[in-house]
Design a protein that fits this description.
alpha+beta, v583 fold, 17 helices, 18 strands, globular
C-alpha cells in the first residue's frame, strides 16, 4: 500500500469496469475500489452497433422521423379506452375464425414444432369441439394437415399460456372506443389442470362445456344488463389495490364480480347455476387476466404499422419461440428460442418438469402493466419468487427502456408515478435491459398442466434482429 501511495502520491482509489475479481484483489490489498456493473452496448456486436449508429440516417433525416413516429405510437397507446361490451361465440365473433382453425399463442408455429403444453391444449380443444373422440385421435388429426393453426394475434385476439381458441369457445369482446378496434380473449378457466396449461382430461373438457353452456350466457346477460364496463378504469383501480394485471388479478376479478353480481343475482336462470357461477368466480383469482390481456391488445393494435417507429407493438411466445413485432415493420415477427422461466414450483415439481416460456399474456408487459407494474403489487413475489424490494426495482428499471409513463395506471409505492410504457427497441439494445415478465409455468409433457410461476427474460436476439432489420429498411429507403 505504501508503494502505491509513493507511486501515485496518494492512496489509490479505483473504479473498476469489467471483471469483479480485479476490484476484489485491490480491496484485499487495502486499496479503495468500486465495482461498476458495466457491459458494452449491444454486447460489442459490430453489426448491431452499426445499426444503432445508422439510426441517425443519411444527413440526419431518419432520427426526427423516428421521434415523430414514436410520439404518435405513444399518443395512441395512452389515448386507448378499452371497454368490455359483451361475450360472443368465437366462430361468430373473431374475424376469420372457422371450424378447422385453432388459434394459439405466440408467433406462428407448426404442429411439428409445438411445445408440449401447446400440443396438449390443441388435443383438448379438438376433443372439446367434437372433432376427435380421444386425445390420441386429436393428435393424429392435428398432424394430418386437416387442422389449420394460426396465431391469436393474427385475429385480433390473445390467449394466455397455450392460448388455444376453437370455434365454439365463448370470448370476451373488448372495444377500444378511442379508435374503434376490437380485441378478443377466451374466459379464464382458473389455475392448475386447465386447457391453457396443456391439460385435457375429462374434468378439463367438462369445465369448458360448462363455461360455454352456463357461465358465458349468464355473464353475458349480466353484462348486457349492466352496460359496457370501462376496463381502463377497472385496471387503474386494481393497481391501487395491489394488482399488477398479469399474475395478480385478485382486485380486478373482485371489481368485475362487484359490477356484475346484482345482475347475476337477479338472473332468471336456475338458482343452483347462479350459485355455481359465483363459486367459480370466487375461487378464480385469475379470472380478470383474460380481460386485462384483451384490454392491452386493444390498446396496442392501433400502434401497429406506424412508419419509422421503433415502438414494440407485440411480444408473445408459444413455448417454442419468443417473438416480437415492431410498429415500424408491420406484421413481421422476430423470433428466438423461448427461454426457461425462473420461479417457484408447486409441490412435487421442479425445473426439470418445466416447458419453456409460453403465452400471449406478455401483452400486459408490452402495454405497461404486468411485470412493468410489479411495484404496485409487492405481494406478487409470494407467487413468483423474490422480494418486495425487487418488485420495486423491476419497475424502476423499466423506465430506462420505455418512452412514457401512463397517466392513468399509477403506482402508489412510487408516489403515484405512472407505469413505464412504450418499449423502445433502441433503448433495449443500447442498455442491454430486456423487459421484465412474470408468468406461469406449464409442464413440458402434454396433459399435466400448471407446475409453477416465476420471472423470465425475453431473448435479446429478438430485439437486436428487429433493430438491424429496421435500420436496413429505412436506411435503404433514404439511400
Amino acid at each position: 500500500m505504501n508503494q502505491t501511495k509513493a507511486l501515485f502520491g496518494s492512496d489509490l482509489k479505483v473504479i473498476n469496469l469489467g471483471l469483479a475479481s480485479f476490484a476484489d484483489s485491490l480491496l484485499q490489498t487495502g486499496a479503495q475500489a468500486v465495482q461498476v456493473d458495466w457491459k458494452p452496448i449491444a454486447f460489442g456486436e459490430t453489426r448491431v452497433l452499426n445499426a444503432l449508429d445508422n439510426l441517425v440516417g443519411l444527413d440526419g433525416e431518419l432520427l426526427p422521423k423516428i421521434c415523430e413516429a414514436n410520439a404518435e405510437a405513444v399518443r395512441r397507446l395512452l389515448a386507448a379506452k378499452p371497454v368490455l361490451t359483451r361475450i360472443g361465440r368465437a366462430s361468430d365473433t373473431i374475424p376469420g375464425m372457422r371450424q378447422n382453425l385453432v388459434l394459439h399463442s405466440g408467433p406462428p408455429v407448426t404442429w411439428e414444432r409445438m411445445s408440449g403444453p401447446t400440443r396438449g391444449a390443441v388435443m383438448g380443444g379438438l376433443v372439446y369441439e367434437g372433432l376427435a373422440k380421444t386425445p390420441e385421435d386429436a393428435a393424429q388429426l392435428a398432424a394430418s394437415g386437416q387442422i389449420e393453426f394460426e396465431p391469436c394475434h393474427h385475429h385480433q385476439s390473445v390467449g394466455p399460456m397455450a392460448g388455444i381458441v376453437t370455434a365454439s369457445m365463448p370470448v370476451w369482446v373488448v372495444e377500444n372506443t378511442a379508435f374503434g378496434n376490437l380485441a378478443f380473449s377466451t374466459l379464464n378457466e382458473g389455475l392448475g389442470k386447465v386447457l391453457r396449461y396443456g391439460a385435457y382430461d375429462e374434468t378439463v373438457i367438462a369445465r369448458l362445456k360448462w363455461m360455454e353452456r352456463v357461465l358465458a350466457p349468464m355473464l353475458n346477460e349480466a353484462l348486457v344488463a349492466h352496460g359496457p364496463i370501462d376496463l381502463r378504469n377497472v385496471m387503474a383501480q386494481a393497481l391501487q389495490m395491489g394488482d399488477e394485471g398479469h399474475n395478480r388479478n385478485r382486485a380486478g376479478t373482485s371489481l368485475i364480480i362487484r359490477a356484475l353480481a346484482p345482475h347475476l343475482a337477479q338472473s332468471h336462470k336456475d338458482k343452483s347455476d347462479v350459485a355455481q357461477v359465483f363459486r367459480f368466480l370466487d375461487s378464480n383469482d385469475h379470472f380478470f387476466l383474460n380481460l386485462s390481456m384483451a384490454a392491452a391488445k386493444s390498446a396496442l393494435d392501433p400502434t401497429q404499422g406506424i412508419r419509422h417507429s421503433t415502438f414494440v407493438s407485440t411480444m408473445a411466445r408459444n413455448g417454442t419461440d419468443f417473438g416480437l413485432r415492431l410498429s415500424g415493420l408491420g406484421d413481421r415477427w422476430f423470433t428466438a428460442p423461448s427461454p426457461m422461466v425462473e420461479g417457484l414450483y408447486l409441490p412435487g415439481f421442479t425445473a426439470a418438469d418445466a416447458a419453456p416460456d409460453i403465452g400471449d399474456s406478455v401483452i400486459t408487459e408490452t402495454s405497461g402493466i404486468g411485470g412493468f407494474a410489479m411495484a404496485a403489487a409487492p405481494a406478487i413475489v409470494q407467487f413468483i419468487g423474490g422480494t418486495a424490494d425487487q418488485a420495486l426495482g423491476y419497475t424502476r428499471k423499466m423506465y430506462e427502456i420505455t418512452l412514457a409513463e401512463h397517466p392513468t395506471y399509477k403506482i402508489p409505492a412510487l408516489d403515484f408515478r405512472g407505469t413505464p410504457c412504450g418499449i423502445d427497441i433502441t433503448k433495449v439494445v443500447e442498455t442491454g435491459i430486456v423487459p421484465v415478465v412474470n408468468t406461469g409455468i406449464a409442464h413440458k409433457v402434454p396433459g399435466v398442466g400448471m407446475v409453477g410461476a416465476g420471472l423470465v427474460k425475453p431473448p435479446m436476439a429478438c430485439f437486436t434482429e428487429a433493430l438491424v432489420a429496421f435500420t436496413e429498411k429505412y436506411q435503404g429507403e433514404l439511400s
